[in-house]
Amino acid sequence: MNIKPLSGACAWKGENIVNDSSWQFHFDAIDLVDLDEALFHAKNAGCDIRSVDRSLFPLDHLSQKLHDISSVLEDGCGFARLKSLPLDRWSMEDRELIWMGLASHIGVPVYQNYQGQLIRPITAERGDVGDRYGQLEMDSGQFLSSRARTASNSELRFHTDRCDVVALLCTGQAETGGDSRIASSVTVHNEMLKRAPELCKMLYEDLPRSRIGEEQGGETAWYYLPVWGVQNNKFTSHYSRTYVEALEYVSGAPQVSDVQWKAMDMLAELADECALSMRLDPGDIQFLNNHVIYHSRGSYQDNPDKGLVRSLTRIWLCSPQRALPEKHKILWGEVESGKIRGGIQQPIVSQQTIPN
Question: Distance between CA atoms of 85 and 351, rounded to whole angstroms?
Fold first, then answer.
């Protein structure tokens, strides 16, 4: 395998991009009028979050800004922040419709669980999240699924989600901690190729993963998928260590080699080394291209008495401008550009198409 360094704006380091203006956007007064008018149009058409799309949520002025964000996601650094949506301007119901309508200009929403959830709240939930969202019982304690970990206030390691673009709207922030950290998977790839080429090569090869939690289901309790791949000169990475670690508790699953663990250890170290930290304020929106961005979250502490509770609403979007390697079909469903893909497959899947 002839592996070469990858180039482009998506290969960045946090220290070099922190003050770059290319990923920073703001709502202006005309944008807000646009949203008010689009909301009026969508409600008159009888839309809810399941039926609204960009044709039913027309944006005149703001559409150009969202087009620019889409370009940054696919051909630029791979992430964007759109600041200062005035959350108190609308009711919670209207705000949710606005959030889905706005996101539909970036991509087509896909399901985030088997119950057909399109907008998911991300906050620290009380009670036993493992019982609700998946866990394995062991002598040493509980092994939480990725879904359960997200519903806690603990740290989340660098990973990607099961969609082209993850969109997060911050509606509240913790008293301490909870900062978002992102890293260029392209830079991680290039650094590993430079420092440990054999480990870099290892991540292009099949890696077994479990289906615990969000990836539950399928013919077997595990499957193979490389961490890295290139198709038509475009890179993609899909990675979450939790699904690999859970193999230990799946009967009959293949073992991960010491060299594979070493490669994943180095991936995490390089992501941490190259990362950009970002604290989202209420009203901020973060868009991430999962193919070229790893994201993580620091642990945090809420203070409900002071109204300081970290809360975000998440939308998974299909925006398939790049084709994916054939081996990624087992997770994504489709690998061709322009096809609906990603998310969690439903018992009965409705036919969706990418709008023009």
Answer: 32
